[in-house]
């Protein structure tokens, strides 16, 4: 098995390894896991980590107590607003989609709904420019987007974005069933 240290370094921090990553190393790591998933699964289980496979991505999961789970649900609520904002910006925002910060800022001038949704993003920040910077930083830190072109500031949405979409879908289904 190759890349066990690299895999651990990425996934143990809450990151993702995506099939459509721009990083050549991440692509090689993804292929290595895909080729020998069972061995990696057993290896990481032996050191207390659960390697999970999603729709074009890998990540670590763990069993959590109720307090940790409540905190996670609270953090997820913030992401519901963020994903809603991104889908309002462009309804096809998802894996493979490319965008620039300037695209989002330009859309503010013609989209009142987007301006309204931006108010809920990072209320501690005052300007839309700062809010979009923070959103992109958070997306990049979690591995949901990668900088595709430094010169023009183009970002590409990775397969890992499916993770947050699927979590939100699960919450929506549960909420609907309870009503």
Please write out the topology:
Blueprint: H1 4-11, E1 17-18, H2 24-35, H3 37-46, E2 50-53, E3 57-61, H4 66-89, E4 98-100, H5 101-108, H6 112-120, H7 128-141, E5 145-149, E6 154-157, H8 161-178
Antiparallel strand pairs: 1-3, 2-3, 4-6, 5-6
Helix pairs in contact: 4-6, 4-8
Write up this protein.
- The chain has 179 residues and is of the alpha+beta class.
- The protein is built from 8 helices and 6 strands.
- It has a 3-stranded antiparallel β-sheet.
- Strand 5 and strand 6 form a beta hairpin.
- Helix 4 (66-89) runs antiparallel to helix 6 (112-120) and helix 4 packs across helix 8.
- The radius of gyration is 18 Å and the shape is globular.
- The mean pLDDT is 89.
What key attributes describe this structure?
179 residues, alpha+beta, three-stranded antiparallel beta sheet, 6 strands, 58% helix
Write a brief structural summary.
The protein is of the alpha+beta class and 179 residues long. It is built from eight helices and six strands, in the order αβααββαβαααββα. The protein is 58% helix and 13% strand.
Query: Which H/E pattern describes the elements?
Result: HEHHEEHEHHHEEH
How would a crystallographer describe the biggest sheet?
3 strands, antiparallel
Q: Would you count the extended β strands for me?
A: 6
Percent range for β-strand residues: 5-15%
Put simply, the count of helices is: 8
Q: Describe the strand arrangement of the main beta sheet, using strand numbers.
A: 1-3-2
**What is the gyration radius calculated from CA atoms?**
18 Å
The average pLDDT score comes to 89
Instruction: Describe the global form.
Output: globular
Q: Estimate the helix proportion, in percent.
A: 55-70%
